[in-house]
Amino acid sequence: MIVLAVVVVGAIAFMFYSDKTKKSEQTAAMQALQEEAKPYEEERESLETELADLEDGVFYASEEAKTMVGFAVSEVSDLTYMEELAETYDFPPVLVLDCVMDLEDAEELIDAADADWEIMLYVSDFSEETNDSVLSVMDYMETAARGYTGVFFLRNDFSTDENIRLLKEDGFTGYTVYNSDSPDAGQMDDGTVYFDYSYLSTSGTSVGSRISAMYRNKAAMIYVLDMESINAGTLSKDYVTDLMDKLQEYAEYDDCSFSTVADVVAELSQINAIEEKNQTDYEERAAEMEERIDELSDMIHEIYSRMEY
Predict the structure, then answer these.
(1) Residue 216 · residue 186 · CB < 8 Å
(2) Residues 206, 241: contact at Cβ < 8 Å?
(3) Cα 87 to Cα 85: distance, rounded to the nearest angstrom
(4) pLDDT digits (tens, 9 = 90+) for 114-151
(5) How far apart are CA 225 and CA 195, in angstroms?
(6) Which residue, 123, 218, 240, 287, shows the most beta carbons closer than 10 Å to its own?
(7) pTM (2 decimals)?
């Protein structure tokens, strides 16, 4: 019995030793294969990351936030305050002209405005009927050889497909939009551009979060001050000053600036062409990279297939 016990113990010890030796050999073999496969795995991982970045880069993303400041004016006397504020904060002012005012009054404002100021047209209640007023003002501006921005100041409640169609028929190449949480700017498939706005007529309006969102999203946005509200005191000049101080603070960042509507339109108008080129570049490079990734995967598979268990 003693001899048998010794034999059994010895057999168990031998099996344990053999199993341990085999596992050690397998571990060593796997480590050798991993070391051999490592450069190919690293190259594949690098290519997969580069491919993902390349795909993300197809879509246009602005590197700078752009701030525009406009004034919805109703009287020639409004231009004085508009000019004073523009000189204090050094931004190019935009005269936002309500086309439903008496045409003679609109003509007087157009003639009195500084020739360097941009003029953006709008109506407070846009429809097919009020669009006739827009056309009348456009006719006068053409006669007076005075340009206007190709972007129509379209309030959110009136940004319907039908109204946008009317504006396109009028020759406008863009319009404003309103996204309360995430200011946006871009170009539609048909080439129409758009950017965000804030219309300010009361001192209780908080726009701090929208300013920071504009900066964070690197979007273009126009802040329009209602001069009638300023004259009436519902939009206090202290509020306006505080707002301009905040915009000035952001405009001093390297990736944010006061801008003209023309510059914003010029940038946005390039988006479709940029994205089309990026897509072409992506497709050309992606095909080569995907082919190499497949090759590397086959090589890695071949290496690990040599492992014996």
Answers:
(1) no
(2) no
(3) 5
(4) 999 999 999 988 888 899 999 999 999 999 999 899 99
(5) 17
(6) 123
(7) 0.79
